[in-house]
Amino acid sequence: MPAYHSVFLNDQDVRVIGNFALLPLRTRTRGPAYTLPQLPPGTSELDIDGNDESYDPLDEILSLFRANTFFRNFEIKGPADRLLIYGILFVSECLGKIKPTMGKKDAEKALLNTALDQFAIPGDASFPLNQAFEAPRDRQDAETLRQYLAQVRQELAMRLLARVYADGNAPSKFWLSFTKRKFMGKSL
Questions:
Q1: Which of the residues 7, 25, 87, 166 has an alpha carbon 20 to 30 A from that of 81?
Q2: pLDDT tens string 120-136
Q3: In the Cβ-directed half-sphere of 81, how many Cα atoms lie within 13 Å?
Q4: What is the pTM assigned to this prediction?
């Protein structure tokens, strides 16, 4: 059975830096991403439909994370798949920071620190997937990509926290069971 690919592969008029797609996000975090409309009242982020206009790549990353982490190989079919890969690797890193005994406030602090930490972008020597990602053309593109990834990391950390702590102040053992798994054998 092949890995699940992004539903955003067919999106037209998407800005691409290197070969990394800068897709629109439903976020309140400042950054270069085009902002999608917020969810209608009464709709939960945990059960958003893939056909909703507010469905974004971060919802897709969180919904496909557990299924895709079992795959060691992933055929990249387009720029949106690269965002999916990066997001899955970041979620995996975040889950490694959450300990089973952590309360929600401590986990929020740990995840926000992880999201705001200095990180490598495609083209940097320390970026783990340079063979699958192209470096940005120039310094301005590199800075835009860094800002976009910072926006993705912050928003993804907050949405992951909402899912892991959906039942209260204790983390979900079903999410934490994926802390040791490495998607494609890689980590950020």
A1: 166
A2: 999 999 998 888 899 99
A3: 15
A4: 0.92
Burial class of residue 87 (count of CB atoms within 10 Å of its CB; 0-12, 13-18, 19+) = buried
Among 54-68, 97-111, 151-165, the minimum mean pLDDT is found in 54-68
Q: How many other C-beta atoms lie within 10 A of the C-beta of residue 54? A: 16
Question: Cβ distance 64 to 88 under 8 Å?
Answer: yes
Contacts of 42 (CB under 8 A, 6+ apart): none
Per DSSP, the three-state class of 183 is: helix
Cα–Cα separations (whole angstroms), residue 37 to 28, 43, 44, 70, 88? 10, 13, 14, 32, 24
Report yes or no: 156 and 29 within 8 Å, Cβ to Cβ: no
Q: What pLDDT, on a 0 to 100 scale, did the predictor assign at position 142?
A: 94
* Backbone angles phi and psi of 63, in degrees to 5: -80, -30
Is 157 in contact with 114 (CB distance < 8 Å)?
Answer: yes
Q: What is the largest CA-CA distance in the chain?
A: 45
Name the amino acid, one letter, at 25. L
145 contacts 121 by C-beta, under 8 angstroms: yes
